[in-house]
Amino acid sequence: MSNTRECLQLLQLVTNAELKESPVYVPMHPFEELNEQEVKHIDSGLSPSEQVQQAINCLPLPSQKIVNGLKPSFRRWTIMDYSKAYSSGEITPCMVAEQLVTAIRESSSPPMDMAFFINYDAEDILRQAKESTRRYERGEPISALDGVPIAIKDEIDCRPYPTTGGTKWLHKFRSCKGDACCVMRLRSCGAVIIGKTNMHELGAGTSGINPHYGATRNPYNPGMISGGSSSGSAAVVAAGLCPVALGVDGGGSVRMPAALCGVVGFKPTFGRVPHSGVLPLNWTVGMVGVLAGTIEDAFIVYAAINGPLPSHETSAIPLPKVYFPLLQSTNSVSNVILARYGEWFSDCGDDIRTCCSQALHQLSEKFGWKTVDVTIPDIESMRLAHYLTIGSECTAGLSSYLEKLDNAESGWDLRVALCVYGSFSGEEYIKAQKLRSRQMQFHRNIFTKADVIVTPTVGVTAYPIFDDALKTGELDYINGAALVRYQIAGNFLGLPAVTVPVGYDKNGLPIGLQFIGRPWSEPTLIHIAYAMQTLCVSKYRKPQVFYDLLQKD
């Protein structure tokens, strides 16, 4: 029934649409100076480790993080906590790695079965940690990321692991020949790569329930979903196994699970981070993103992985300049204008609507920021055009592999998705790109009136994992539509976006607030997210499943 409804809507709003706009096939925006407040220009040509140091120089001092005299009742250990503990000799990367391997094994086994990882290699983790420990012993750490554990979504190439994309078959046809560009940059900073995290099969769903590798369970309530498709990356950060993980966001796949698991999810502007070494599932809507316990940690890893694209990904447009936000500035950004589409904003659960509205009120009270009412036309048409685009790109990118696929090797939800994807025509794809052009203009107009668009991150909080879905996968149109409701502009239009935890529902499940920015406005987004985080951090709660790898509790 749900797929029939989807197809009818697609026919009405995309296939039969009369569109005068020229199609836009790739949402690559020309760079323009935005004259953002409290930012620092970063010279081109810096190494990833040098960019990390530049980001650290922008961070606030610890004393600046206490707001209204309130210290957080719970906080996850940050990149700087690890770096300072290693530099002081209080603990070593080897000691952390040993605890980490034990924690991964425990969480992967009965009775927990959290299904955080598809693949991890204890010997490889310990080898990297020993090398990092020796660097600290010599007083020569590469950067603040040296020895810090970071997990990688299994959609991103990362040796010594195969890249499965959450399937049981893709790695048999497509071998992983080396690290993706983003992983290489993290390694060059000394990060310890701890394995490949679980994901919804081929990224074709929002729940994070994988019939082959298990349903990634939410650390705040293991009976609930973690969200998808970067399910494992969100959950390992929430559970304290690492301060940061990489995901890929093609339709909210970083921001949705981040919101459901109570962590930060940051998706940069399309083209800001190289996509080389990422599975070709969504090349004009997907972007490597960062999941982190804090916005500062998301910023540090963003600093490491952003930068000029490899030569084979070059574009005719000039490379964008890089600016970092000066979070340590005593002057918070002023006169920020937030755009809110009231009817759309309120199309979510009662607890989410109340919590997100209160968070907006806090921003207004504390910083004097204003909210303006806007209307975004044809939101449902945009969602369907994005669905048609991501589906078409998935089948085109994997066509040579899909020809060899035995359907019995896939979950039922992926089989249905591939059938729908395969039904899209070239004419429909072009019409979807015309809708992309139209929506770009709509959003361009909004950004003449406001700095960011603000929405709840998702329309529902985490819902239960049902036993029958564990073996087959899950297609839940109602919950899936609610989860993806606020995600599409970030992907289809190539806009940067970030979600920040702002509270909990009546069952103690996390709620996120999302900010969507104009192209290349990452510094302003990080400033706004940091301001939001400072107002909410004193109320953050410890998950049911949590590991203290620095043993400070």
Automatic annotation (TrEMBL):
Pfam families: Amidase (PF01425). InterPro entries: Amidase, Amidase_CS, Amidase_dom, AS_sf. Transmembrane segments: none annotated. GO terms for molecular function: hydrolase activity, acting on carbon-nitrogen (but not peptide) bonds, in linear amides. Residues 120-525 form the Amidase domain. Gene3D superfamilies: Amidase signature (AS) domain. Coiled coil: none annotated. Belongs to the amidase family. This is Amidase domain-containing protein. The lineage of its organism: Eukaryota, Viridiplantae, Streptophyta, Embryophyta, Tracheophyta.
